[in-house]
Amino acid sequence: MSVVTCSRGAALAIAADVRAGRRSAVSVVTGVIADMEIRDTRFNSVTRILGAAAVAQAEEVDRAVAAGKDPGPLAGVPFGVKDLFDVRGEVTTAGSIVLRDNLPATADATVVARLRAAGAVPVATLNMDEFAYGFSTENAHSGTTRNPHDPARLAGGSSGGSAASVAAGMLPFTLGSDTNGSIRVPSSLCGVWGLKPTYGQMPLKGVYPFVASLDVVGPMASTVEDLQAVYSIMAGAPPLALPDVGDVRVARLGGWFASNISPELTAGIDAVMAHLGRDRVIELPEVARARASAFLISAAEGGNLHLPRLRRRAMQYDPATRGRLMAGAMLPAATFVQAQRFRRWFREQVHAALAQADVFIAPATVGVAPRIDQPTITLDGKTVSARANLGIFTQPISLTGLPVLAAPLAVDGLPLGIQLIGRPGGEDRLFAVAGELQRAGLARCQPLDAGYARKDSGC
Amino acid sequence: MSSAASVSPSAPGTPGAAGHDDRKVPPVADMARIIGLSIPAACLPDVVANTALLQGYADLLGGFALPDDCEPAYEYTP
């Protein structure tokens, strides 16, 4: 296992080399594509390689460099997108054959366009649970994405292809979406950095929807520096000015968030809190009902979105998705409204807790990635489906819309991840804490073999 | 149970007219018909299971009293 050690980030290192003429964008992009074609046979994280279009854009970047023009801060950096982002010229499938006859997108999703304008090059679309409805990236149409750290285990989902391709070292950063934990769960199980920005902050134009009340898009990356740079470009905002980490008040979440987790995860959070010199524990009220509300809102809105197609061609859907969407479509209005009213109540409780801390720390999952041949986890002594329950710690936070940075703990063995949960618009504090954890060696991403970094110039 | 209750259609997750607890067997066919959804027979067990799962979450949520002035969060700002 090799480690990307570039202090400025793997993606930013590529861009620096391309901008300086030490590497060509075409060589980077073609190298990454060749690497994916060879190595992804083990992981099944990629659904399409955008070869010709990617090389054409890379040639544009190289021409800009040769002409002395600014090729952008991410010049020549290859990236992949979960298969629900519009990429011009490609059909957006959302991981399903149900949409395969749609016309190709005529324009990029807004966040893809912003990255492309910054010089980054989309090179692949990535596997996901059908219509983002799941935590495992087990897809009846495109297969199961395997965890690069142990291909016998799940990568998590629904942005499993996005996490696995970073963990494998095939791509320096990717895009995912998060409704109930779909960036945070796979980031944690694959050991990569991931960000679910504040709800409503990122433009969703050109992103195939799942649950309008909860949907957010964000980046996944192998370093905090890359994650932050990509986040700022996606948001169309200037680079963040980070606060001193010593000024950030950190507390760990207790109660619901301290139950059912592995001893290694508890020890990891203990170490993080000790390093940050904080010992405050906060318990949020009614977390089980917050999770229930997110579950019900997701079912109702997802089911309603798909109802017209479920009436006509239900059998085209992934069996694992179909039953959930149908059940959700039938959910009584009284239940949906109650969930939305509870969301309002829970928001007030969370904001009261935020008066005591700027960042909450909580586990992202109960433990390491479940095995593919035994896709279950244990909750309160019961064996339950991983696909439906891996988000036990992420779903309640989704209901709040707060920003969350998924941090991979530096552990021996399979990856474990934690959530750094911030106040609305408080991504700067999350990055300050994440950067400190990375600097201190308490959190790190260890890509298997970063092919994109293989070059003659050092980081 | 009153006679009026015994002849009323049972709501999902409530004791049914037959006097047994049909909480685990939601009237999925009726619910689907109302929204114009035809559930293929092969899918029915899975839909029933998921409907029961959602009903469990709905029961959990329904057991919490919210103040009358707590509005739905349709236009949600974190």
Automatic annotation (TrEMBL), chain B:
Full protein name: Uncharacterized protein
Sequence ranges of Low complexity compositional bias: 1-18
Alphabetical list of InterPro entries matching this protein: AtzG-like
Superkingdom classification of source: Bacteria
Species the sequence originates in: Komagataeibacter saccharivorans
Pfam families named in the record: AtzG-like
Disordered as annotated region, ranges: 1-25
